Amino acid sequence: xxxxxxxxxxxxxxxxxxxxxxxxxxxxxxxxxxxxxxxxxxxxxxxxxxxxxxxxxxxxxxxxxxxxxxxxxxxxxxxxxxxxxxxxxxxxxxxxxxxxxxxxxxxxxxxxxxxxxxxxxxxxxxxxxxxxxxxxxxxxxxxxxxxxxxxxxxxxxxxxxxxxxxxxxxxxxxxxxxxxxxxxxxxxxxxxxxxxxxxxxxxxxxxxxxxxxxxxxxxxxxxxxxxxxxxxxxxxxxxxxxxxxxxxxxxxxxxxxxxxxxxxxxxxxxxxxxxxxxxxxxxxxxxxxxxxxxxxxxxxxxxxxxxxxxxxxxxxxxxxxxxxxxxxxxxxxxxxxxxxxxxxxxxxxxxxxxxxxxxxxxxxxxxxxxxxxxxxxxxxxxxxxxxxxxxxxxxxxxxxxxxxxxxxxxxxxxxxxxxxxxxxxxxxxxxxxxxxxxxxxxxxxxxxxxxxxxxxxxxxxxxxxxxxxxxxxxxxxxxxxxxxxxxxxxxxxxxxxxx
Length: 499
Fold this sequence. Notes:
Elements: H1 3-8, H2 14-27, H3 29-38, E1 42-44, H4 52-62, E2 68-70, H5 87-90, H6 92-95, E3 106-107, H7 112-122, E4 134-135, E5 144-148, H8 151-169, E6 176-180, H9 186-195, E7 200-203, H10 212-225, H11 230-236, H12 246-259, H13 263-268, H14 278-297, H15 304-314, H16 317-324, H17 328-351, H18 357-367, H19 376-380, E8 383-387, H20 388-391, E9 396-401, H21 412-416, H22 420-431, E10 434-443, E11 445-448, E12 451-454, H23 459-465, H24 483-488
Parallel strand pairs: 1-2, 3-4, 5-10, 6-8, 6-9, 7-8, 9-10
Antiparallel strand pairs: 11-12
């Protein structure tokens, strides 16, 4: 909310609560002294996530006795993107001279195998407090590092192993967590989990199949496949806006109900509908004609990706996303979901002997079957899918850290913007979520915008294994892993027989 609006309505947002509190303490010695004297000791938890304003607040509140204790782990500072400053914990002794540092290096969560991997990764960060985690849990199971063909094989392999361990080794679904760096990565896992009827919960995010952009694009594709699909037409008739108002829709539906026909047929008989908006009817009929024309251009299933792209382009859907999300960062996140539909189509074509639009939509419909109606007890007996950021503070007996590739983890943007150290801390957090077993995986290739793009193993995976980069390895930030250069070098799509 703009500052002027907040002031006019006498409100404060979260940032204001911090900055105005700091201003009050700085400018009012009496209040500062009262607060300093109110509490004898001050304890700050998760100190590694402190931002500049919070740090200054602590200094104002400590008082002359300096009875301050902070608890934190600089190796778990992963919120720089929202203002956290790792230098505050790294420089604590300089900010508060005479402070005593107590290292807590015994870990009661994870086995020695897991902590060894975490130590081998994080020691490559030059700016950190020197410490080495030791396990109180014993050696444990060896780590698994797996190279996958692509994201579909990664999902199939992980889900198959989870199901086998539950059915034959006495594990519970709630023992398992799948961790990923980016919001689009869970899509193939969701599809595979639903197909194999494995219960799961996606933490800290909306299911891929529930996103507006995905539902809209699928509605357009269904309408292209079936011009009489009433539900799909009504969903996207004004996305983007086409001047089809509620009054027009109501009159068309009323006519359709009275005549016992679908809304699509009612639009074909619009001249029989009293006082219906002719321009709105023309807009709907033009849309339907465009979709029929695109469908005729791509009659074979091998052209499914091109068909999906052309449908999205023909209806001007990019304008709808830009209209709803004018901020560039928000737009990119939303548009990534649209491109993930293209990736889904590309994977579908490669896996099917006779791919087709209807088969693709049927497979998506099965994947998108709502499994969220289960009660809380059932949800607790489920595999957990969550981002690395959302996993902080949590723990699971068996963890799959997937997508360990340059450009994914470390993320391409972070590598370009000199943020690899925080990405390494993010990998460290992910590794240390595992209690007894950890599997690390990466894909040799991955779909991007409907094309196959060659991938390279993450430097963090190489650090875990204490291996030098292989010949031809290209680090994130070099312009080859993601972005336009990657698209230009994308491998041509090849059909593969289903095994």
